[in-house]
Amino acid sequence: MPRARSPSSSSSEDLTSPSDPPSVDPYQVLSLSRDATPDQIKSAYRKAALKNHPDKAPKGEENTYKEAFQRIAFAYAILSDPIRRKRYDTTGSTAESASADDFDWATFYAEQFRDAVSAEAIETFRKQYKGSDEEKDDLLAAYEEFEGDMDKVYESVMLSDVIDDDERFRAIIDQAIRDGEVEKYKKYAKETKKARDGRVKNARKEAKEAEELAKELGVDKKLKGGKKGGGGEDALAALIRGNQAKRAGMFDALAEKYGAKEKSGKGGKKRKVVEEEPEIDDDEFERVQKEMMKKAAAKKRKA
Question: In what ranges is there compositional bias, type Acidic residues (predicted)?
């Protein structure tokens, strides 16, 4: 790495190198029933992995996220393999399940760490999640938890985008209120059109700033799927993996905005265009981040 990290931070190598396999109840970790199907296991893993990936960790919380991700990855290692799953169901021991074959935990963890934020993983999860009953349940749960505070709802629901999802989310919530599934909270019911428009305006502003940051870092063409650019989320994943300081916000803001782009080829068929991921050192990232913070502070003073 180009510069030393503070004692509270973990290096990229530390995050991708797991400790010994944890002792867990894999069904509990992934919030699954004992009769969960392979597809349900895969879906639960993808959701948990994206939500708890160490690349989303705020500074100083890398180890906490790593420990959570290790539990999630190990739970998936047990339940995704029929033999290991059957052995666990019989013995109740993850240690015995993992040690009875040629399972390499370190290699498996490193692969999951890398692949959980790949373009394919994010796009696959997005297609399954957006518009699903699971997303609806998450939306209504967040609505109830935050008592109609839509700012917090959008922070909570994965891959949510106020620009694209506001009307759809409100239709779901309004129907649930009519059906008596959820309470009609005052904060939701009394929210003015001005407040709603302001939320969308702020979201557009943040999206523009994200685009400017991508341009500063030289990955804007890749994120937009330019003529010579690669898949948007491949570039995004590289950007996220390479720089921990700003990861959490960029992951949610950009992963949804820049889906894996497809480019039309001959015969009208579409193909995904892949290019080598950019390498961005921490010094350059920190410089751009400071510039953005100064601009934001200046705008607030003028407001």
Answer: 276-285
